[in-house]
Write a structure and sequence with these properties.
This protein is of the alpha+beta class. It contains twelve helices and eleven strands. α3 crosses α5 and α8 crosses α12.
Length: 358
């Protein structure tokens, strides 16, 4: 009697790996040197939006950031494998605990040496690239890039649309954002520091965070840090950028936000006569109770197709800003010392700023 044919354990009997497992493994190998592979709380970097060509966007970002990074911080230094720290020789007096601490320190130092100055990580949203930075001040670098492009009017990118520095990240839950922002915003707004400001807000792949609540809480924190901090929708000294992607909140405070066309690299290189003025009919209630009409709006034609529908809805809101709700309906708690109309005015600024979020 013939013996039954035995199946190979890997050929027929076991489950085959799905395509998703192979894709996950491929994604897992993308980031080398032990760094984070996706956007997560605790990172600093640069958030970049693109025109549906993410690979080309990453290539352009590396070229641009390395060019201006070398200009500001000098050439990036690489360490040969032979020069990396290795196990140290221990003396007779060294105990086990000291030797262990020393070895852990050397491993950490070796890992940091392998990390690049700029490294792309998974952002968690389509048409959005996040470049993690190490030993770099994102606001300083991005402002330097935009200042040069604004002055020279040289177009250096095709795929990159906007480039926003991200100086801090935390979990995208209201309580986490409030706690983090109380410390994060101090360098710009805590007395004796003060300034005029606006808040711009954008959320991607996230539906559990309420936009108005976030803006109201952040405006309250700014007001509590110094009562002299004022809202300015036309020419603010600082713009508080809030970018939420999935469960991560990215924060930064930038200068010249309107001057540099909301940090849009395609728009900032256009000549002055080619750029539309920021004009939109808004009614803003001032501190003395009078209504002041502001004429400030202008939209970029470089909209991200993935966000075109959303932007169209926002444009309709912008056109209706002349019929704003009374301050009493949007007023925030005054327990932190901020003026009641502060949140209302900042909310209007955020709504008008979303017209150019490509």
């Amino acid at each position: 009697m013939a013996s039954p044919v035995q199946q190979h354990p890997q050929s027929g009997g076991g489950k085959r790996k799905g395509k998703a497992q192979y894709l996950e493994a491929k994604r897992f190998r993308r980031c080398e040197g032990g760094g984070p592979r996706q956007l997560e709380p605790g990172l600093k970097g640069i958030l970049i939006t693109c025109n549906m060509k993410e690979r080309k966007c990453v290539e352009e970002a590396y070229i641009l950031l390395n060019e201006y990074g070398d200009d500001l911080y000098g050439p990036e230094k690489f360490v040969d494998k032979d020069q990396q720290p290795c196990g140290s020789e221990l003396g007779d007096d060294d105990d086990v605990e000291a030797a262990l601490k020393k070895e852990v320190g050397e491993i950490k130092a070796s890992t940091e040496m392998r990390l690049r100055r700029f490294q792309s990580v998974e952002s968690g949203a389509n048409n959005v690239v996040f470049i993690r930075t190490l030993g770099i001040e994102p606001e300083k670098l991005v402002h330097h890039i935009l200042q040069d492009m604004y002055t020279t009017k040289k177009k250096k990118t095709r795929a990159i649309l906007r480039m926003l520095p991200i100086s801090g990240t935390c979990k995208a839950f209201l309580e986490d954002m409030k706690k983090y922002a109380e410390t994060f915003l101090e360098p710009w707004f805590k007395a004796p520091n003060k300034g005029t400001f606006q808040i711009v807000y954008k959320a991607r792949n996230n539906s559990h965070v309420n936009r108005e609540e976030v803006i109201k809480e952040l405006a309250g924190i700014v007001g509590s840090l110094n009562s002299e901090n004022k809202v300015d929708l036309t020419n603010p000294q600082y713009t508080v950028v809030v970018e939420i992607i999935k469960a991560v909140c990215c924060l930064s405070v930038v200068k010249d936000y309107l001057l540099f066309r909301k940090y849009n690299l395609q728009e900032v290189v256009k000549s002055t006569k080619d750029q539309p003025q920021f004009i939109s009919k808004q009614t803003v209630q001032t501190g003395n109770g009078k209504e002041a009409k502001l004429e400030a709006d202008g939209r970029s034609n470089q909209n991200d197709p993935a966000e075109e529908k959303n932007n169209q809805k926002v444009v309709l809101k912008s056109e209706e800003l002349g019929q704003t709700k009374p301050v009493s309906e949007v007023s925030m708690a005054n327990e932190e010392g901020a003026k009641p109309e502060l949140a209302s005015r900042v909310t209007e600024a955020s709504e008008s700023s979303e017209n150019d979020l490509s």
